[in-house]
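Risk mitigation, structural track. In case the binding assays with D-glutamic acid fail to produce interpretable data, a predicted complex structure has been prepared as a fallback.
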Amino acid sequence: MKERPIGIFDSGVGGLTVAHAIKQILPGESIIYFGDTAHLPYGDKSAESIKLYSRKITEFLLEHNVKVVLVACNSASASAFDILKKEFSQTILIDVINPVVDYLATKHYERIGVIGTKRTISSGTYENKIKNRTGETTVVSLATPLLVPMIEEGFIFDDISNAIIRTYLSDPSLKGIQALILGCTHYPIIKNQISKIFNFNIDIVDSARIVAEALRENLEKNDLLNMGDKLKDQFFISDYTPYFEKIARMFFEGEINLKKADIWS
Ligand code: DGL
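Fallback model:
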């Protein structure tokens, strides 16, 4: 059981930020990653569609014998996590929103911003969960839908991405925030560009490390930390996109064992 891999999924490259943090914090673990590039971006899809995709991918990962399923996507965490927990009640499932809310409960921010996809922001999940835990915090939410296609198309660290990021983050609602939650797992890829807009003056809450820590605690609690041999990491995508492999190589040096998995036909 302990040697089985950790299943991770996202719509595309975003979950790789979480996978990367897991490999740093838990170097003994192996992963199976699924990027649902055929349905990217999730942020523009209905909650019903995201539930359908998430259910099918969870089944795929379980067929590959994973010991945990990590929903490394905020849009899926906001729309599908509750239903996954009901339908896969025997499986250990971890999302990317609850660990961040737990982390924020230990801080005492007065005003905090959250950026994410249209699906995540319109769900109000961050706002509601943070308000329930820390009544004193004002949460301002902003949908930043161009950022995911921008990153998936490889527009990072350049003038185009700087202009888009600046335009979004100049929104007056974000004035006076002490921290900004990156409410999309794609965003840590452009964390420095985001931080720069705020003159590196506010805390940027990057879920990747927080979620990897939550996973470590969960594996420890369930006595599932791998102490034995490690399997080879595997990366699956549902459709070929030119940048997936390129960005995957930014995070994982060496050969990426990337396969197309046709789970939708
Ligand atoms: N990385 C995902 C998220 O955290 C998905 C973004 C998308 O596909 O729109 O929301």
